[in-house]
Amino acid sequence: HASDPSNVVITEKPAALLSSNTLVNESSLLGKVPSLGNWRASLSYPTSDAAPILNIQSDLGGSSNVTLPSTSAADIAYIGFDMEFRSPTELWICGGDRNSNVTLKGYQLGAGSPPGSASLIQSIAIPDGAARSPHMIRLKSGALVCSWYEQGTRNFKFSYLGPTATTWITTGPILMTTGFDSGSEPATNTALVQHPATGDVWLFIKID
After folding, report:
1. pTM higher than 0.85 for the full model?
2. Which residues in 74-113 are b (16+ Cβ under 10 Å) and which e?
3. Cα separations (Å) of 134 from 26, 37, 56, 112, 145?
């Protein structure tokens, strides 16, 4: 199956990087840059307790750095993170906190070209305690899908937000058995992809 690499190359960033003063966004570093229309986004953070900084680039020229309110890097990026636009003015982040619980945060982007501000529109905590490798894609319909797995198991969970919905629907755990040796668990490398012809959503898992 061939697909656009920008929709495929996704991986988790080690939590240890949160203790450094590094300004690296895992998505852009690995080739997946969330984009919609003229906007392309990346996320960075100076320290784990600092508010993340959203960098928005315009294909028409110009860029902006927006501090995301009501959160810290440790709230959304401790176990890795991913993000996608649902519309040109709405961005969602799927990540996790220090307790390995899943966090979904939605932001309304303000006026400007590119936008120069952001406000929190919704914050959802999904208790888990063992979540790893959260990833998100935007479907052709405009809906968002986020996935993660539970460390120490072969269980995967998924959350879905419709194109105009205000409520995330979470399902799972779903036990993955094919391709695993007895006692093994998934590696931290996973990828969600929508098939361009059928619209089916595929989860790819890389085993250590």
Report:
1. no
2. bbbbbbbbbbbbbeebbbbbbbbbeebbbbbbbbebeeee
3. 12, 24, 22, 30, 10
Instruction: List the end-to-end C-alpha distance of the chain, in Å, as a whole number.
Output: 22
**Span 69-92, pLDDT tens digits:** 877 777 777 777 888 889 888 999
Alpha-carbon distance of 52 to 177, in angstroms, equals 37
R_g (Cα) of the chain, nearest Å: 16
List 191's β-bridge partners, or say none: 204
pLDDT at site 19: 32
Residue 131, helix vs strand vs coil: strand
Average pLDDT over residues 141-150: 88
How many CB atoms neighbour CB 136 within 10 A? 25
51 to 46, 80, 139: CA distances (angstroms): 8, 16, 28
DSSP state of 2: -
Q: What is the dihedral of CA 80, 151, 166, 52, to 10 degrees?
A: -20
Residue range 7-46, pLDDT digits in tens: 322 223 333 323 333 333 343 333 356 777 778 888 877 7
